[in-house]
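queue> pop job 88
queue> type: inverse folding (structure -> sequence)
queue> payload:
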């Protein structure tokens, strides 16, 4: 009996996956070609994807963060990334924030982020919630530069709730 119930459920799941693809008017839609390679709202120019690595790069946590990013960029670049038919490579931009013992509240990091924000397509980093809050505002806040920011350290309640409170700004 269990075998038949399992087969029935499996058959319904397969039908649920297949039937939506059977609709349409039978005509193939033509795809519009983009003039420039676009991923989301970001246009990667000059065959390069610039990623800022923000953190206390002179401290052990920042050094390992940069080492991990360097290893990942090397592997990605070795695989050749094609966007819109054009080869692209990942370039890392170091953003020394002084976060941690030097500047736990992020004012030095704020200035460093402002100085490099025009050079990057995305930013990875951050360790302390107080500093990450400041960096994120420079990148994606209401008056930010529109650059994706990936928090790599802090995952506190205040950062998480800001996404719920202002989803349009912080959804990415």
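queue> result:
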């Amino acid at each position: 009996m269990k075998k038949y119930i399992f087969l029935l459920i499996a058959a319904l799941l397969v039908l649920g996956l297949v039937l939506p693809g059977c609709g349409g008017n039978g005509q193939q839609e033509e795809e519009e070609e983009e003039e420039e390679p676009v991923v989301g709202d970001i246009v990667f120019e000059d065959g390069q994807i610039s990623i800022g690595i923000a953190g206390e790069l002179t401290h052990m946590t920042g050094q390992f963060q940069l080492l991990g990013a360097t290893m990942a960029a090397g592997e990605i670049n070795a695989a050749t990334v094609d966007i819109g038919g054009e080869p692209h490579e990942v370039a890392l931009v170091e953003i020394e924030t002084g976060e941690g013992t030097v500047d736990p509240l992020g004012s030095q990091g704020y200035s460093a982020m402002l100085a490099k924000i025009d050079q990057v397509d995305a930013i990875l980093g951050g360790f302390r919630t107080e500093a990450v809050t400041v960096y994120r505002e420079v990148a994606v806040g209401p008056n930010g530069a529109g650059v994706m920011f990936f928090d790599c350290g802090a995952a506190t309640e205040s950062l998480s709730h800001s996404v719920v409170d202002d989803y349009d700004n912080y959804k990415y």
